[in-house]
Amino acid sequence: MKIRFICALVSVLAISIAPACAQSLPVVDILTSRHQAIENATGGYYTFRNIPYAEAPVGQLRFRYPIPRMTVNRAIDDGSNGRICPQTAGPWFAQSIPLVIQTIATTCNNTSGDPPGAPPAASLPESEDCLLLDVSIPKSVWDKRASVKRPVLVWIHGGGYLQGSKETAVVPELMSKSMANNKGGMIIVSINYRL
Where in the sequence is the signal peptide annotated (predicted)? Predict the structure, then answer.
């Protein structure tokens, strides 16, 4: 996928705004789909979730490079029906289980087994139609979007091309740090990609 296409998609998202008739949350129109924001009132930002950035890689497109989204869906997506790309465990997984169990057993203050500050595990359905991205934007930037430019951070998850999703982005922490001390915040884009 060319970075130019993703940058163009983010640009279109940032400047193409549909009026939110009788709705309190903003709606963006990116020509192929419309998305309503989810508000994080505590963090002071909006997130537009599950924006498709390429055609679904199914059927004849399964083993090909992603192609720009051409399918049009005019229904407003509220971001509630997410999905992640199919996941797997590497051949090293079975060998690592004893070490993981030992590490968890010796961790005194951490009974969950997750590293401190780790995001919760994604429990979304797996689907081949998973080429989606989320865009999080501070409310103050959204309110002045015609005149304010902010840096954009693109979060590409890890996972060794075996597992992971855009859901692992630590958006609340990143957003909080970017808005601390009146810094103005940044726009955060997190993506799914085929594993």
Answer: 1-22
- Residue of 35, 30, 31, 34 whose CA lies nearest to 46: 35
> CB count, 10 Å around CB of 105?
8
- As a three-state string, the secondary structure of 12-34 is HHHHCEECCCCCCCCEEECCCEE
The H-or-E segment that residue 104 falls in is helix 93-106
Residues of the chain below pLDDT 50 = 16-22, 113, 115-119, 122
Of the chain, the end-to-end C-alpha distance in Å amounts to 14
Supply the pTM of this predicted model.
Answer: 0.73
Strand 27-29 versus strand 17-18 pairing type:
antiparallel
Largest separation between any pair of C-alpha atoms in the chain: 56
CB 86 within 8 A of CB 126: yes
Task: Look up the CATH superfamily of 3-191.
Answer: Alpha/Beta hydrolase fold, catalytic domain (3.40.50.1820)
The full 3-state SS of 122-183, as one line of letters, equals: CCCCECCCCCEEEEEEEHHHHHCCCCCCCCEEEEECCCCCCCCCHHHCCHHHHHHHHHHHHC
pLDDT for the residue 134: 97
Q: What is the spatial distance between Cα 39 and Cα 49, in angstroms, rounded to a whole number?
A: 11
Phi/psi class of residue 97: alpha, beta or left (left: φ > 0; alpha: ψ in -120 to 50)?
alpha
Q: Where are the domains of the chain?
A: 3-191
